[in-house]
Prior knowledge:
Layout: H1 2-13, E1 27-28, E2 31-36, E3 56-61, E4 64-67, E5 79-84, E6 87-92, E7 103-109, E8 115-123, E9 129-136, E10 139-143, E11 150-154
Amino acid sequence: xxxxxxxxxxxxxxxxxxxxxDCCSVVDVGITIKYLNETGENLLEVENGINTSxxxxxxKVNDEWIEYYEGNLDYPKGLKTEERENIKYLVVFPSTTxxxxxxxxxxxxxxxxxxxxxxxxxxxxxxxxxxxxVWYNDQLKWDAISTERIxxxxx
Length: 155
């Protein structure tokens, strides 16, 4: 009986002693954007501003724009609003599919005629996925040297 008990303890303990260093992955891709109009009003807070329920995200995959929707996720459309110090921001989770030279592309469609393109440089080393640069409509808005991945866009 003692032998069986000892073997059972050994069978349970051995798998937990693995020295696998690939246990953890970091996924850090969220981009926080404050949208303002020309007079400085937050477009996520004003009447007739940006209605986030009407925004669609598209990921560029194999040179085609594919609408993003993953119903099993907390934010199935790949975006959410966030409030900081009573100010509303849009948080976008961009594509992590590399198109060219470590970059991915995501289209934010506000309406049929209004869209913007986010291009992100993605570091996929050591099982991690980390955004290291953000370009918004061909303008560099954030890079890894900056602190928090947050910026303003005037629309």
